[in-house]
Amino acid sequence: MTRAIAAAILAVLAVPAQGAGFTVSKDKSQPAVSIQGKKAIPQTKSKTLQTPSVASPVITAVSPADCVEKGASITLQGSNFLTSAGRSIALDDGAGTHLQLPINSWSGTSISATVPDDPRVQEGWSYWVAMETVQGQWLSNVDQSITICGTAYSEQEPVNNLPQLPLGGGSLLDGAMPPPPATPTQQVAAIKEDVTVEPGEVVVVSADMNEARQLQQTAQSMGFGIKRRTPLGNLGLVMSVLRVPKGTTVAAALDQLRQSLPNAWMDANHRYQLQSGKAVRYAPQAIAWNARAGCGAGLHIGLIDTAIDKSHPLFKGRTIAQRSFLASGIADAPKNHGTATASILVGSAPGGLLPDAQLHAAAVFRSRGKEVDTTAEWVVRALDWLVGEKVVVINLSLGGSRNLLLEAALQRVLERDIVIVAAAGNGGIDAEPVYPAAQPGVIAVTAIDANLKPYGRDNRGAYIAYAAPGVDVWVATPGGDGAYATGTSYAAPFVTAVVAAAKWSQPRNNRAALDRLLQSKAKDLGASGRDNIFGWGLIQMPVECVRSPRVAQGKERSKRH
C-alpha cells in the first residue's frame, strides 16, 4: 500500500575518461524507449501507420487534471491523432504495469478513453498516458500522466508509518512538515529557463496525501496544473509536480507559490550531472584497506547512478539488484559511469572493495542528445526505493544546485540512520558548493592523486568531509574492459566502502560514533585539522573488516531463539 511509483527518472553519466560526479536535470519529455520488454520505435513515424509526410501524434493535455476514479473517462487533447485504426491509448507506471484503455471516441484532436477497474491500477499511483500501436509500440510523446483517486493515502491512513528516529534540530517525521529553510533571493533569481532545470515544472513535497490535495487546490486556483503526483511510502512523503502557467517563468512561478504557500517545501526540478573528469591501483593501499574474505557479506549498499553492465566479468557471482526508474520513451544514458562506480564497490577482487556485499543500484540517468543528466524528482524516487531495500549507505556521485525537494528527502533518509556519501564536484577552486554534497549530514568527498595531491578541478569549501583516491583510478567499463578514470565521482565510492565496512564490523555504532571514528583515523593532509581542500583528510579504513565475536554470537543466539 505504501509502494512508491517508479515513473520516470533520467540518467546523467560521465565516462571514465571524463571525471566523476553527476548533475540533476528536470526535463520529463519522453522519446520512445523500451520498458519491460516493450520495443520502442521513433516518435516521428511508423512504416505501417504513417507516411513520412504525416506528423507524429502529440498529446498536449489530459483531463481531468485532478485524480481520476477507476472506471471513469479521461480526455486527451492534442494534434495529429488521425484515426483509431491500429492504435490505442495505454497506461504505464514505469515499473511493469502496462494497460491499453477502452476507447469511447476518437478524433484528430481529442480522444476519450476509460480507465479500467483493474486491480493492477492502484489508488494513489500515477501513470503515463500515451498513444501506441496495438502491438505496443509508442507513437506519441510520453510526458502526460494521471493519478488514480482513492483512500490509500488519506489522513486516516498516513503515508508515514515508519518509526520515528530522533535527530538534533527536529524531525520531519513528526507529522506536519516543518517550515522550509529560507531561500536566498539571489538563488531564486538565478533560476533560468536553461539546461539547469526542467522547463515549466515546479516540484513540491507534502507530509501526506490530504496535504498534497489541499496544495493542489491552491495551486490550481493560481493557474498551475498537476502533471504528476507520487506517494513515497518509504520516505513518508507525497511528491507533486506542478505545470507552470504559460508565459510564466519557473522563477516567477516559485515566487508566486511561496507567497501563497510559505510553509510548503517546493523548488524547481533541478537537473544533476555526473561528477567525472578525464582519466593505479594505488587506491586501496592509500586508504589502508584491510578487508578479509567475506567482509560485508549480507550488507546492503545503495547506488544512484547510470545503469550497470552486469555482464562484465568483474560482476560474475556478485549480488546486484538493479532497477531502472526511466519510463518508456526516455533514452537511457550509457552504462559507463554506473559500471565504473559499481566495480569499485562490489567488483571482484582486487578491484572491488566489498565483493561480498549486496548492491542495490538505481538507474536514473537519461541521454538528451549530447547531454546526460537526471532530475531531482527521479533521484527522490530512487531514494525512496533504496530506503525500502534496507541499505546502510547510499553513494551519490552526482551534483548540481541546491533543491528543497531533494533536501527534504535526504533528511528523511538520514533520520533512518542511513549514511549518504556524495561527490564534492569538479567545478574548480572558485566554484559554488555542489549539492547534495554540501547538504548538512551528507559526507562530501573530494579527490586526490597517488601523490596525495588534490585533483586540479575539485571543488573547495567548508562542506568537504574527506579526501579519497579519484585521479587515475582503475575502473571497469562496459563490454568487459577497464580504464583509468578521474573525478570526485570515483573518489566517493571509496568512502562509501569504508563507511559500509565500518558499519558491518561495528553495527552498534550510531552516526555520531561513526563520525568520531572516521575523523580520528583520517590521514591529515594540508593545513592541520579540517580544511577546505581535504576536509578531515584522506579517509582510512578505521578497523579491520571482521565481525566482532560478540556480535556474531548475538546473531547466532537470535537465530536459535
Give structural notes.
With 561 residues, the chain is of the alpha+beta class. The chain contains ten helices and 25 strands. Strands 15-16-14-19-21-22-23 form a seven-stranded parallel beta sheet, with helices on both faces. Strands 1, 10, 11, 12, 13 and 20 form a six-stranded antiparallel beta sheet that branches. A four-stranded antiparallel beta sheet has the order 2-3-7-6, with no helix packed on it. Helix 5 runs parallel beside helix 8 (488-505). The chain is globular and about 70 Å long. It starts with 18 loop residues before the first strand and ends with a helix. Mean pLDDT is 79; it is low at 1-53, 151-175 and 548-561.
Short descriptors:
alpha+beta, seven-stranded parallel sheet, 10 helices, 25 strands
